[in-house]
Design goal:
Alpha-Beta Plaits, alpha+beta, disordered N terminus, globular
């Protein structure tokens, strides 16, 4: 799966990303209880990107409507202020060397550094996706960003 690091090498690529119909708004992905009114360019927020592979072990793929349902029921309750979903294709290298290509969904969350439950919520989202769609892993990338709304 895209972003599926597990025991694999870190040679993960996500390519061909396009904006999905979800939330490219001024209220991007603030964490539970977070708000952005008055945020300035000096406000620092956590940015978490989650890479969800779409290939299922049975050879089928997670359909966009299935992923949207997952977003609505599992991600939005934890990050109700907003988020961004991108769709695309990606690949990862399976040891020892076979490259697996598949569709992917990328969720970008921005939330205040003081959001009390954000880390646990994100880990629950990752666990739920792996369980619901029989995935080995969900790649998580974290950084701190200066944001302005």
């Amino acid at each position: 799966m895209v972003g599926g690091m597990g025991n694999r090498s870190p040679q993960v690529l996500a390519t061909g990303l396009t904006c999905a119909t979800l939330g490219l708004t001024a209220g991007l992905g603030l964490g539970a209880g977070g708000s952005a009114p008055g945020a300035t360019a000096t406000d620092q927020y956590h940015r978490t990107e989650l890479y969800f592979g779409a290939a299922k072990p049975d050879g089928s793929a997670v359909r966009p409507e299935e992923f949207q349902n997952f977003v609505d029921k599992e991600i939005t309750p934890a990050f109700p202020a907003g988020l961004t979903v991108l769709t695309g294709s990606g690949q990862w290298q399976r040891a020892p060397g076979a490259v697996v290509k598949e569709g992917a969904f990328v969720v970008i969350l921005l939330y205040p550094r003081t959001a009390p439950h954000a880390d646990a919520d994100i880990e629950n989202i990752r666990s739920d996706y792996k369980r619901f769609f029989a995935q080995e892993s969900v790649l998580r990338v974290d950084s701190v960003q200066r944001v302005s709304f």
